[in-house]
């Protein structure tokens, strides 16, 4: 059995970015349903911060990273949809993408079209698949819908701005600075709200002539959840899919009735990525939109993998826009 030497980011404890350590590891042969991948690029996502802080618990010492692209080095005996030499990408568990080489389950890995670079593949899978299910399944956006999208200039946000315009929606986006407002608008956002200077509920009501929006997409969590409910028209939908400011506290479901028979959902990308009957068509939809030029993936930051701690600091300090990738070599 051949053992490969590799480098990876390991965390011995939960905490700040300083808990991320650059270590030597050994990588063995894949099991029957696994593949061994040599990574070419790795995606940075806010979910990585949740794991590092212990918001999403995992056994320690632990690994980070939910998304990467690379080349298959070897496949297990029962793997049929992939072979050595295939260009691939993935988003999903188990964590461990912050590595040069890894063994992982084959069922969440998809082939990456030749027309999509490794860097783009790593930057788009988790965020792109998230946008795909948010806009087509969590709530099916229709032409003429009005949408409130928090963090419109982030990685998910910039992909969503473009996709929402393809669907014929009017988009209101919250952002943290004038620079981010201009960026979101350049990607299709119709109206921007600076959440730290404006009352986003009041402004959303003004922009919709008092009606409210069909749907709110909220990855901020605790700081925006209750106000977001006040932005929604009767029988509208609240989609909460992240908690950058902390988890949403327990809610009395009667509030949804009092605010207009609202619907509430809390989807996660793992539900979709770990079901190949969902993953395959979702990935095909995403790849098609990127290859056709309808969706552009904005990679605005690149870090060497060994500098993952600094990447985490910048992400948490809201210094990043669009997608961020880590380079393992």
Automatic annotation (TrEMBL):
Q: What InterPro entries does this protein map onto?
A: ADH-like_C (IPR013149), ADH-like_N (IPR013154), ER (IPR020843), GroES-like_sf (IPR011032), NAD(P)-bd_dom_sf (IPR036291), QOR-like (IPR047618), Quin_OxRdtase/zeta-crystal_CS (IPR002364)
UniProt cross-references to Gene3D superfamilies, sorted A to Z = Medium-chain alcohol dehydrogenases, catalytic domain, NAD(P)-binding Rossmann-like Domain
KW Hydrolase (keyword) present: no
Query: SMART domains, alphabetically?
Result: PKS_ER
Q: Which residues form the Enoyl reductase (ER) domain?
A: 15-326
Q: Which SUPFAM superfamilies match?
A: GroES-like, NAD(P)-binding Rossmann-fold domains
List, alphabetically, the Pfam families matched: ADH_N, ADH_zinc_N
Keyword annotations of the record: NADP, Oxidoreductase
Name of this protein: NADPH2:quinone reductase
């Amino acid at each position: 059995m051949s053992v490969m030497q590799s480098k990876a980011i390991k965390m011995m404890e939960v905490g700040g970015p300083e808990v991320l350590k650059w270590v030597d590891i050994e990588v063995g042969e894949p099991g029957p349903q696994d593949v061994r991948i040599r990574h070419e690029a790795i995606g940075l996502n806010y979910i990585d911060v949740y794991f590092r802080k212990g918001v999403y618990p995992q056994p320690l010492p632990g690994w980070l990273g939910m998304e990467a692209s690379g080349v298959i080095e070897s496949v297990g005996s029962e793997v049929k949809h992939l072979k050595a030499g295939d260009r691939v990408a993935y988003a999903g568990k188990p964590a461990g993408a912050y590595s040069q080489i890894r063994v992982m389950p084959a069922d969440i890995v998809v082939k990456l079209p030749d027309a999509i670079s490794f860097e783009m593949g790593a930057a788009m899978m988790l965020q792109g698949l998230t946008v795909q299910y948010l806009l087509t399944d969590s709530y099916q956006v229709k032409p003429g819908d009005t949408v409130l999208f928090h963090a419109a200039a982030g990685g998910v946000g910039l992909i969503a701005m473009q996709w929402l315009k393809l669907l014929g929606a009017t988009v209101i986006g919250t952002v943290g600075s004038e620079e981010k407002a201009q960026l979101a608008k350049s990607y299709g956002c119709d109206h921007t709200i600076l959440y730290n200077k404006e009352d986003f509920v009041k402004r959303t009501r003004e922009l919709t002539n008092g009606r409210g929006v069909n749907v709110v997409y909220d990855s901020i969590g605790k700081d925006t959840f209750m106000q977001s409910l006040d932005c929604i028209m009767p029988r509208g939908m609240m989609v909460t899919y992240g908690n950058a400011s902390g988890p949403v506290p327990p809610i009395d479901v009667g509030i949804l009735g009092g605010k207009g028979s609202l619907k509430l959902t809390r989807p996660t990308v793992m539900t979709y990525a770990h079901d190949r009957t969902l993953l395959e068509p979702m990935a095909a939809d995403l790849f098609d939109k990127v290859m056709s030029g309808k969706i552009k993936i904005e990679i605005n930051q690149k870090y060497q993998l060994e500098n993952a701690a600094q990447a985490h600091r910048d992400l948490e300090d809201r210094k990043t826009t669009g997608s961020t990738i880590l380079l393992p070599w």
